[in-house]
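Q: Could you fold this chain for me?
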Amino acid sequence: MTPLVDAARAAGFARSCRDEHGELLRVLARGVGDGVIGETGTGAGVGLAWLTAGAAPGARLVSIERDPARAAAAARLFRDEPRVEVVTGDWRSLRPYGPFDLLVLDGGGQGKGSEPPLDPAEWLRPGGLVVMDDFTPCTSWPPTYEGRVDEARQWWLTHPDLRATQVNVTPDAATLLATYLPGATAPR
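A: Sure. Below is the predicted structure, expressed as structure tokens.
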């Protein structure tokens, strides 16, 4: 995916996913089969390219980007890929394309900052997986970031209908994975 990353940087978009996270996305997409994969925050299309590389021939991929110029550029990039649809809009506008078997939250829905996290029951199929990158590895409880409790990470890791974990993709970067299991009562 390096050519895509290089093209994204040349276009002034430096926030593309790391190759290590991309490899994880590719592997996770492979496990979806003919399901539905969603992504918030298309950006330059790098993460979407990793997802497409792993997705089965019968999978459907939908990515949403709020910036119209970036969405149009990504749509052009995937114009010959019938499984992929890139739409323009706020991340919340992706919901009608679900429920999702795999949902990558990169452009909203994580609960970082002032916005609340999305409700997994409204977005995911039972057994569906949500993926969030751009975390730092954390080995303490409660999880902290910059000396404060990391409310977003704690919300995902303790949600009663999710089984979640942190995967360190590099020594300084972590990804959260959470499987939606409504009504599950497994001990934490």
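A (continued): The mean pLDDT is 90.
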